[in-house]
Amino acid sequence: MFEARDNAQLLRLMEELSCLKKGAYESNIKFTSRAKMIRDELAMLGNPVDDNTLALRVLSGLPSEYGMLRTVLDNKDVKLVMSDVTAKLLQVEQRNMSTGSLKPVGSVRSQAFAAAAPKKPFDKTSVACYYCDKKGHMKLD
């Protein structure tokens, strides 16, 4: 019974690691921390993941903005260390934020500006009711 549950959890974690992708509004620290948590959970189940494999999975989950960093780190002659990859990712993120090429995703400032932005009034004339197909109102569920 316990082995079946462990195997199911192991399968889920391995799938999660193989499909690891950085979210659009996720910082690099959160992304690498998520990868490390998956690695730690796999190790607890008796299936450790080496540092080089984890670093390669993290690099493969990066969006296209990190293409140059991925190329440089992928072509290194030595095995990758996760702490080095994390440090490089943070450097690139800081540089991009200072030059303005990437938005500081998830920062308090960007959330505050989004909340303070004036909202456009809702235009009912463009809405059509899905129940009677008349414009100007919606059927409540």
Gyration radius, to the nearest Å? 22 Å
Distance between the termini: 44 Å
Total count of domains: 1
Output the helix-strand order: HHHHHH
What is the average per-residue confidence, as pLDDT, rounded to a whole number?
A: 80
Task: Please report the number of helical segments.
Answer: 6
Low-pLDDT regions: 103-115
What fraction of residues sit in β-strands?
under 5%
**Care to count the β-strands?**
0
The global form is flat
Question: Could you give a short account of the major beta sheet?
Answer: none
Q: Give the class from helix and strand content and strand pairing.
A: mainly alpha
Helix content: 55-70%
Can you offer a commentary on this structure?
- By secondary structure, this protein is mainly alpha-helical.
- It contains six helices and no strands.
- The chain has one domain (2-126).
- The protein has helices at residues 2-18, 28-44, 51-60, 67-74, 82-99, 108-116.
- The chain is flat, with a radius of gyration of 22 Å.
Question: Which helices and strands occur, and which strands form pairs?
Answer:
Blueprint lengths: L1 H17 L9 H17 L6 H10 L6 H8 L7 H18 L8 H9 L25
Quick structural overview:
This protein has six helices and no strands. The protein is mainly alpha-helical. Mean pLDDT is 80; it is low at 103-115.
